[in-house]
C-alpha cells in the first residue's frame, strides 16, 4: 500500500461565488517528486497556498504526516510560493540570518543550506545584485532552513535561462535522497518531464489526472488530453 505524505479530499476554495479550486483530491507519495501541472490560472498556486496555510480552504480536508493539517505542521514544511521574499540590500548569508532569527533556528544551518543551493561563495554581493536564478536558489535556501520533510515549490523555473533551469533541475533531483518529498507546480512540461515521478493535472480548478509517470512518457500528449477534455 502506498504511503502518502500528504492527501487532500474534495478541497475547494471560493473567491466570492467563483470556485478557484473545485473538489481537488491529491495523493502525494512519501519520497516522491510530485508535479502539479496546469495552465496559468488553473488553480495551482491557490491549492499550494492552502497546503501552506496562506489561504483557508472553503471546504474539504488536508491530511499531512498522517494527521489533519494543523499550523504546527509548518515546522516540517518548507515552501517557495511565487517570488522569494528577499532583502535586496543584504547578502545571501544575511538574508538567511534574518530568517533563522524569525524561525528560532540555529545559525549553523546557514552554511549548510547555502552549500546545498551553491551560493556559499557569493561573499558581500547583495541579493539585489543576484541573477534571477540566484534569487530563486536563495528562496529555496530559505525554505530549506528548517530541514523540511515536505518542500513545496511554486513555478520555481519562472524567469530562468536554460543554464539556470538546468541547475535548478539538478538541485531538485537531489532532495528525495535527503529525505524530502517535493511538490512542484509548473506549466513548463519539458522541465517537469525530466524531474517528476508522479503528476496531477489541474484545469479550471479541477483535478483532471493523477498518477505515476515515467520519464520517457509523452507528458505533453497526456497534458493536452487532460486539459482539452476538461474544456469540453
From TrEMBL:
Domain ABC transporter stretches: 6-229
Single annotated GO MF: ATP binding
PROSITE patterns to which the protein is assigned, alphabetical: ABC_TRANSPORTER_2
Keyword ATP-binding: yes
CDD domains documented for this protein: ABC_BcrA_bacitracin_resist
Keywords: ATP-binding, Nucleotide-binding, Transport
Family affiliation: Belongs to the ABC transporter superfamily.
PANTHER family the record matches: ABC TRANSPORTER, ATP-BINDING PROTEIN
The protein's name: Lantibiotic ABC transporter ATP-binding protein
Organism: Desulfotomaculum copahuensis
Amino acid at each position: 500500500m502506498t504511503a502518502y505524505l500528504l492527501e487532500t479530499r474534495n478541497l475547494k476554495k471560493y473567491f466570492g461565488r467563483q470556485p478557484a479550486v473545485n473538489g481537488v483530491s491529491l495523493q502525494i507519495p512519501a519520497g516522491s517528486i510530485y508535479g502539479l501541472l496546469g495552465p496559468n490560472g488553473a488553480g495551482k498556486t491557490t491549492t499550494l497556498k492552502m497546503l501552506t496555510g496562506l489561504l483557508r480552504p472553503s471546504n474539504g480536508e488536508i491530511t499531512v504526516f498522517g494527521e489533519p493539517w494543523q499550523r504546527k505542521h509548518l515546522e516540517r514544511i518548507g515552501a517557495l510560493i511565487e517570488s522569494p521574499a528577499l532583502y535586496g540590500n543584504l547578502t545571501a548569508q544575511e538574508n538567511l540570518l534574518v530568517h533563522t532569527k524569525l524561525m528560532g533556528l540555529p545559525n549553523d544551518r546557514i552554511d549548510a543550506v547555502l552549500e546545498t543551493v551553491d551560493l556559499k561563495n557569493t561573499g558581500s554581493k547583495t541579493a539585489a545584485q543576484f541573477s534571477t536564478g540566484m534569487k530563486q536558489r536563495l528562496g529555496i535556501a530559505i525554505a530549506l532552513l528548517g530541514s523540511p520533510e515536505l518542500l513545496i515549490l511554486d513555478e520555481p523555473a519562472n524567469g530562468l535561462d536554460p543554464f539556470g533551469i538546468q541547475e535548478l533541475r539538478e538541485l531538485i533531483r537531489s532532495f528525495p535522497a535527503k529525505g524530502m518529498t517535493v511538490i512542484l507546480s509548473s506549466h513548463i512540461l519539458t522541465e517537469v518531464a525530466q524531474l517528476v515521478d508522479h503528476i496531477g493535472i489541474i484545469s479550471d480548478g479541477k483535478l483532471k489526472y493523477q498518477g505515476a509517470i515515467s520519464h520517457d512518457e509523452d507528458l505533453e500528449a497526456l497534458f493536452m488530453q487532460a486539459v482539452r477534455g476538461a474544456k469540453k
